[in-house]
Write a structure and sequence with these properties.
- There is one protein chain.
- This protein is α/β, with parallel strands linked by helices and 436 residues long.
- The protein has 16 helices and 13 strands.
- A 4-stranded mixed β-sheet has the order 1-4-5-13, with helices on both faces. Strands 6-9-11-7 form a 4-stranded antiparallel β-sheet, with helices on both faces. A 3-stranded antiparallel β-sheet has the order 10-8-12.
- Helix 10 links the parallel strand 4 and strand 5.
- The radius of gyration is 21 Å and the shape is globular.
- It binds uracil.
- The site of uracil has 9 residues, from helix 9.
Length: 436
């Protein structure tokens, strides 16, 4: 087999055999195929696409490129939850404790933020003392004792994805159905859970911009998960504007606590309860989704979700008192208000622009090795459809570098469009896939 022949074949739109896909994945992971050839291959896939069979092969060879985790020492049906990436998406911090409070064993591996999207591990690391690099046996013990643990993904799980994703990120080849599917599902299928819940984001702050694209991605991932013997469901949810009001690591932790205290923004509360309800159903602890959602809502209302969050934080070395004293979280030295320049209604609140502005306050990284400012980010005071007067605060930026804040403030202002008429109300949960 020859790398150039495989690249040319895909460039010309010809279907690849499983052995050819295996050759590319194994060769690149082992360092035998250089970045420039893999880049050309990925671009060929981007333009020519892969059919379902090719995508299944790609997912499988990426899955077995490293360790496949054994979580059998954890009692009960383990359900993993994964978001395809968004802005202000702190649902794991709420959904995990809610589902765990209802008896679902939550053993989750999460990633860091990159570009305009945030990552759960960075958010958790803003909690003083919280450890995200935990040995496997400690991880399993915590889930058995406290019902929930969330750790950073180790390099041993789907290392092919780690390498290929980093290359896609710098070669303009992220937004392809087969590449996204294989990237997400190879990791999820190797991570040892019994069932998988996918939150497929759709809109300006997501990789999938339209409902049709998001549905295609959701359907393909659900089919691959189910075919692999893991019950898999997906939710298509709106990411046209950021989720909730906080964007940035410690700001999002604080908002997640608000949600668990029953006083968080309506959108993130609704989505979190829905996702937790679906996890409860997938775990076999509810007869249908509606019953699962009822249980999740009861855990929120009774404060059991908040108690579970405190136990989870304490178990991983963090300070649970952050739920009572928010000043224990990292605080930014500076803040800057962005104000409305006219009267009207917010007709656009571009999630990607807010994500980039937040990244530029210091909250995100441009390269994998960059340090993040855990206190930095943006709090939105207005959301889509809100009515504003000239001079009203649209959002407040936080950070430790005033030059960065000034530039980010200009970007944040550009994310808002103000018009004369209120826009149509958007649906947050657009569709669920896999409950047919
Ligand atoms: N998240 C992933 O893990 N991989 C992708 O390709 C896109 C989002």
């Amino acid at each position: 087999m020859n790398t150039v022949d495989i690249i040319i074949k895909k460039r010309n739109g010809v279907k690849l055999a499983p052995e050819e896909i295996k050759y590319m994945v194994e060769g690149y992971t082992a360092g035998n195929i250089p970045d420039y050839q893999m880049s050309a291959f990925l671009m060929a896939v981007y333009f020519s696409g892969m059919d379902r069979e090719e995508t299944v092969s790609l997912t499988e060879y990426m899955r077995v490129s490293g360790d496949v985790v054994d979580l059998s020492r954890i009692k009960g049906i383990k359900v993993d939850k994964h978001s395809t990436g968004g802005v202000g998406d702190k649902t794991t911090l709420v959904v995990g404790p809610l589902a765990a409070a209802c008896g679902v064993p939550v053993a989750k591996m999460s990633g860091r933020g990159l570009g305009f999207t945030g990552g759960t591990i960075d958010k958790l690391e803003s909690i003083p003392g919280f450890q995200t690099a935990v040995e496997e046996c400690e991880f399993i013990n915590q889930v058995n004792e406290r019902g929930i643990a969330v750790i950073g993904q180790t390099g041993h799980i789907a290392p092919a994805d780690k390498k290929i994703y980093a290359l896609r990120d710098v070669t303009g080849t992220v937004e392809n159905l087969s590449l996204i599917t294989s990237s997400i599902m190879s990791k999820k299928l190797a991570a040892g859970s019994d069932a998988i819940l996918l939150d497929v984001k759709c809109g300006s702050g997501a990789f999938m911009k339209t409902v049709e694209e998001a549905e295609k991605l959701g359907r393909l991932m659900v089919d691959i998960g189910n075919d692999s013997g893991k019950k898999t469901m997906a939710v298509i949810s709106d990411m046209e504007q950021p989720l909730g009001r906080a964007v940035g690591n410690s700001l999002e932790v604080s908002e997640a606590i608000d949600v668990l205290q029953g006083r968080g923004p309506a959108d993130i509360t609704e989505l979190s309860v829905q996702l937790a309800g679906m996890m409860i159903y997938l775990s076999g602890l509810a007869g249908n989704i509606a019953e699962g959602v009822e249980k999740a809502a009861a855990a929120l209302q009774s404060g059991r979700g908040l108690e579970k969050f405190r136990s989870f934080v304490e178990g991983q070395g963090g300070d649970p008192e952050i739920t009572r004293s928010r000043e224990l979280l990292p605080q930014a030295a500076h803040s800057m208000e962005v104000k409305a320049e006219r009267d009207g209604f917010i007709t656009t609140l571009d999630a990607m622009k807010i994500g980039l502005a937040s990244q530029h306050t210091g909250a995100g990284r441009q390269r994998k090795e960059d340090q993040v400012d855990l206190s930095a980010g943006i709090v939105l005071h207005q959301k889509l459809g809100d009515s504003v007067s000239r001079g009203d605060v649209l959002c407040v930026l936080y950070g430790n570098d005033q030059t960065k804040l000034r530039l980010a403030a200009e970007e944040a202002l550009a994310a808002f469009e103000i018009g004369d008429n209120a826009p149509e109300k958007r649906k947050l949960i657009i569709k669920t896939i896999g409950d047919e």
